[in-house]
Specification:
Elements: E1 2-3, E2 6-9, H1 13-22, E3 28-31, E4 48-49, H2 58-68, H3 75-94, E5 101-104, E6 107-110, E7 123-124, H4 130-145, E8 150-153, E9 156-163, E10 175-182, E11 187-192, E12 196-198, H5 219-226, E13 231-232, E14 237-244, H6 257-260, E15 264-266, H7 286-300, E16 305-308, H8 314-320, H9 322-330, E17 340-349, E18 352-354, E19 366-368, E20 373-374, H10 387-404, H11 430-447, H12 454-477, H13 482-503, E21 529-530
Parallel strand pairs: 1-11, 2-3, 2-12, 3-8, 12-19, 18-20
Antiparallel strand pairs: 4-7, 5-6, 9-10, 10-11, 13-18, 13-21, 14-17, 15-16, 16-17
The protein binds flavin-adenine dinucleotide.
Residues 9-15, 31-34, 38-41, 43-48, 130-131, 157-158, 199-201, 211-212, 215, 219, 253, 348, 370-372, 385-388, 391 line the site of flavin-adenine dinucleotide.
Amino acid sequence: MKEYDFVVIGSGIAGLSFALKAAKHGSVAVITKRKGPDTNTAWAQGGIACVTSDEDSFELHVRDTLEAGAGLCDENVVRTIVTEAPARIQDLVELGMQFDEREVCGHREFDLGREGGHSKRRVLHVRDVTGKEIENALLSELGRSRNGGVDLLENHMAVDLITAAKLGYAAEDRCLGIYVLDENSGKVETIRSDRIVLATGGCGKVYLYTTNPDIATGDGVAMAWRAGVTIANMEFVQFHPTCLFHPKAKSFLISEAVRGEGGILRNNRGEDFMQRYDPRGSLAPRDIVARAIDAEIKRSGAQCVFLDITDKPVEFLRERFPNIYETCLRFGIDMTKQPIPVVPAAHYQCGGIKTDVNGATSLPGLSAIGEVGCTGLHGANRLASNSLLEGLVVAHRACEAMLQERRPSRVTPISLPEWQSGDVQNVDELVVIYHNWDEIRRLMWDYVGIVRTDKRLQRASARLRNLQREIREFYWNFTVSVDLLELRNLATVAALIVDSALSRKESRGLHYTLDYPEREDRQFRRDTLLSRG
Ligand SMILES: Cc1cc2nc3c(=O)[nH]c(=O)nc-3n(C[C@H](O)[C@H](O)[C@H](O)COP(=O)(O)OP(=O)(O)OC[C@H]3O[C@@H](n4cnc5c(N)ncnc54)[C@H](O)[C@@H]3O)c2cc1C
């Protein structure tokens, strides 16, 4: 059995930022289920929101975030994260991050991007590959820290949390460690730590169409749920309005910054249809744009709509959006000459493991930071480019808070049992795993998408219960594998989304239902909280 002062699950912006700070105070393991850079973070294009310009203010950033959040943000959390942003951006700059700059009246300043819902230009970026640059900067620094006590365990998948309650110490429940599948050996290891940090990102893969990479299977939320931790607001799944529509393009996002720079959404008749839905037109917040596209597609029977930025100079587009330009060109679309075909796709999990602004969960010894956590920053709808920021700020605060906390002192620590596994390997049954994967993702897309009804949600709920029963049987009988573990987690997270959606009897932010189309402010219900405990 291994033992560390801090165990971090996930190597995105949240996990790595935390690990770099924690490494100054003790031994750290960073556990990640693929290679280090296989994260949502590395795919982020637009950038990080932070007030840096004299024309902007913290007050405006707070106001824009609250407005996007449709009445569900925690204002104190929003204020904390917005005002601490400049200090955390400075941390990144000190690691060597070079955000794009421009020359203004003889001096250099940040070249700020504009995105939907922001009243000012405030998004720091590195062309359209911001996330990749951040991930590289953090991983390089981690490489330097490894001699100083950080173990980066790649191809290791966290399976389940070990808690005192599960071992029969219900009166003093806390997190004691974690089981981790070493994909190289196929063995499940036991790792002890009284400071476990989940930084496992989101759950986009629960939907058929998503902008997220394959790692985004909701593992953190599912593990926390099984450990009895409180989960919040899972009905608020953000659909990004503009994912490239091409039969061979897997999940390629066309950044909101394209609309920020003047891109106009048009329907198949070439009309600027967003003017009919919102006075802000193509730059309305994401939930409004995604719903408008959904309605426009359903109304016209077309397969997609189009994002038109052809009126901008060719040189500007190539320089500002090199990644988007090259990728579209590979699929035969020249964005400088023709509109880009786009559709909405699942993008961001606004809910997650309920935490305070320091990432503390309802289970002592367990923190959740980044997209997996639900601090109250995003409310019912995330403001673009606030998520990388949340990962940075909450990682820093989580580390500071842990260092202040008194650690449990047991003369004889509770002994942790080794993993018990079904030892049958039945490759013939693999088809069941793949079939169930597809079924969950398809049913979530069809029944639990951008526009919902109670009837469709109930249908999804009944199907998911059956699938969960089947998966449970599999789980106990066969040797665990990454595919099986991810399937189990996807099914759990899908059921949590459906249960949360069914319990919210109103339309608010990202949750829109035809059965309750109005926002219910008279009997205002804050967070949707689910707990197994
Ligand atoms: C295409 C795209 C563009 C985006 N653009 C922006 C943007 O411009 N600005 C912005 O603010 N946000 C953006 N986002 C959202 C943002 O990228 C994410 O919210 C953020 O990067 C999440 O960071 P994280 O550290 O919480 O998780 P991630 O970066 O997703 O990292 C999660 C980590 O956990 C690991 N992991 C998961 N489960 C397990 C397990 N069971 N065991 C071990 N390891 C596990 C993964 O392998 C990965 O290393 C974008 C997202 C996408 C997909």
